[in-house]
Amino acid sequence: MGTILEDHPNFADVRHGVGRCLAMMGDAEGALEQFDEALKVNDTYAEALLNRAIVLNDLGRFKEASGSFHKASAFGRPRFRRVPLAHRKPTRERPRQDRRSLHGGGSPRRSRSGIRDCR
Length: 119
Description:
The chain has helices at about 5, 10-25, 30-40, 45-60, 60-75, 100, 110-115. The protein has about 120 residues and is mainly alpha-helical. The chain is flat, with a radius of gyration of 21 Å. The termini are far apart.
């Protein structure tokens, strides 16, 4: 029994899935190759176009990324998911919640008493 890619070389979802896995493992070039193969099978595959654009953007190939973003947006609204690349650091940390606001202290906009005052 061969690998999934050997068994289904023309199945765009398989190519896209392998590309996502490679991107998550930090192999951006390998991921890009798989996204391109998926797009050879189905050139209107918006998720593959979007993920291709994200990888190209992360590689600094901005003009190519822009073209893929525009193509992806032209094919409706797919289930866009950000491809987490292993070498990327988060651009923004999640804000910490002020515990005092849960107990009526802290900022009046975030406190329970502040919410009651706004009614």
